[in-house]
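Incident log entry.

Two folding requests arrived from the same account within the same minute. Monitoring flagged them as a possible duplicate submission, but the sequences differ. Recording both here for audit purposes.

Request one:
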Amino acid sequence: MTLDNRLGLGFVRQPKFVLFGPGQRRQLGLMAKGLGRRALVITDERMATTAEFKGMLESLSREDVAASVYDKALPDLPRSNIVEVVSLFRDKDVDLVIGVGGGSCMDLAKTASIVLANGGDVRDYYGEFRVPGPGLPIIAVPTTGGTGAEVTSIAVIFDDETNMKMAITDAHLEPTAAIIDPELTLTCPRGLTAATAADAISHLVEGFTARPKNPTPEELATKIYVGKNRITDIFCIKGLELMNRSVGRVVADPSDLEARSDVMFAAYCAGMVINTTGTAAAHAIQSPIAAFSHAPHGFGVGALLPYVMRLNLPYCTSEFAEIGRVLGVAAPDQPELRQARAGIARIEELLAALGAPLDLKAIEVRPENFQTIAESSLKASRLVLNNPAPMTMESVMAVLRRGYDDDRSWWTAP
């Protein structure tokens, strides 16, 4: 079965401004002054000590934008982080939020923006379109090439009281502006570079093979994830081309700015894709795996991707064949299934070049947890509905078993 966008629809959501290029962080003050005068700048302890961060604060100062810094952002964004930020700054008359760092820093900025503007507890906004009004303006400045959080209407939160990952999906989370400066990734540790790039590759693959939903006008206005379409495909293709060209170069020489720029632009493309299509089975299954594995999110979805791609192959063969052609490992005169398998194999090569694990045993997932993981993954209905192959207990358990056994044979049924 081939995926069918019957409407010929093209649709994306995006920030008002996106500024990309080496050194563009120096424009932060000029961009900020048009949005506010009292900025809350959110980052983590490591980034706060860097010359680059201090330079960004100086840029704000030159434009008479007062900056209050919160530098205690934590990985996997715990709810307690959001509660602390809101309690510290609720009465500070902040009118702009700037997130500088990885995905958790930017998600903290986005969630702080909506709670500071609308009140209540962040739990009030878990789910889809539950934010009652606009947040404070947000500028997102990513320092890793992978999450795409600088352009998405999504924030993922670990509720450290309920021990569950929760998501807010709402157009009010969309950053007003993104400044994407590849120079900020030059000091990114090798492991983090690999994990975030693996995450971006999974976004591109899942976005390109997601179901077209042929949404109604009402669904476009009320749903974040409205399916694969003509415009998201353009971002997918460009992102895959750049990853194919430069992932190996980044691994070989982390100081290669051109390669870093390619990977960061690919991650931006991936963010633009998932902001509209959403992700699918690999992300749905990884979320409950996080309770049993300490592997970074990007390595978790990367370890699942080979098996999810095989599950989906019969349902989107032409899309995987196009991936094969885009990645330069397939020719149009070859049988379509051969092209598709070559595309899947090349995605695995890119993940392997990053040093990403390609089986579940490597990220310490155990068979005794499969049932719980499968049951929980099926509750992520927005992601389940995106996946081209039906997600059932049987199919998810098959993915988990094959992933644990590193069984990358070509299978046509669970």
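Request two (distinct sequence, not a duplicate):
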Amino acid sequence: MIHYKIKEKVAQTGATLQEVADIIHVNKSTVSKFLKGDHELKFEALFRLISSMFPLNEQPEAFRNTFLHVTNKRNVKCALEFFSANRDTESLSALIEQNKNKFKDMHELFYLYEFISKYRRRIITRDRAYRKLIEFHPSTAESKLLHSLFLMFWNIEYKQFRKIILTKEMVFHALDELEDGYFKTSLRNQFLENYLSYYGHNYDREEINNLLTLLEGHYTNHYNQGLVTHWRALYYQWDDCEKTIQKFNECIQFYYAIGANRYGDFVKYECLYLIMIYYGLELPLEEINKAPDYIQAYYFYRKGNLSKSKELLESCKNRIQDENDLLTLPYQFYLEGLITQNSNYFWLSMYQFFAEGDLLFAMFPIEELKKSGLSEDMVHHLLKTEREKKLLSGNAPALY
């Protein structure tokens, strides 16, 4: 029974029926029926109850165990969206199998969620997935929005930024037509996350702040919360070292608390350490040894150990060549420029960041180029030109 662990937790806290009712915005008799197993709470109430009653480290299991056993159609729809938005493909697949024959009129939602689950598990390739998604024509308001959301994922990967921005007003007009509740709020947050990715990498600080303000305090899953905390750190990155480090540490602690160690390690070793080295802050050597080669190379450069830095940089180059991992290539050029004092490498680094659609981290080589005479006016011109180039190609997909 889905209420069992929650009943135990309520008993442990000593909360009264009225206190529980106040937390989840229902009446006392509804709570009583739920705890007896006679009533299934609405998804929003279950979400609030678990978020309030369970410590952070227990929440992932409590959410999973509860939402895998919801039975009414509305709750199943919300649970599908929860697991998908939270990147929990295993639970998403299990929920689909349990319910797709039970709720035949939700077949479009089941198809789309199963589709994104397969893509995230690499069962289908990116190109094949995109073609199949383009060929699918949903008919309900909810599935149309979900379909548009998944198209946005691919538009970001293919760097079709114009498609993302031109659909913005249509997306929120379509969201307004949905019933209020968790499903609508979660979809809204996912669209906002996509716009955050665009404006964030576009280094548009005003839009970053606007989007973060809309998202902060209105989290619909742990992935959403971690992402927003991460982006808040990036927002402060170039003008407030103390706040940046504070937010990165909050993000790391959050990920470790929910057992998302892979995300926590990424933020720690590739984001926090990068910015700490940039600002000349001390880091323990035993921790640096756990970081990727390009971060270690940067660290030893800052420490004045050029031979060690060059050795690690060669390792980084070989790995990029062997694994075709181009994401660290602009950092490699940046380091090459620092080590050789050849500004051509900073230009290469900057344009590689531009090619990836990442104006935020292009500020690393740009700051070095400014030291060698690049004016603020030219910086603004370069950034403006790159932002405009992002919007030149591609057509906006119809939002039905």
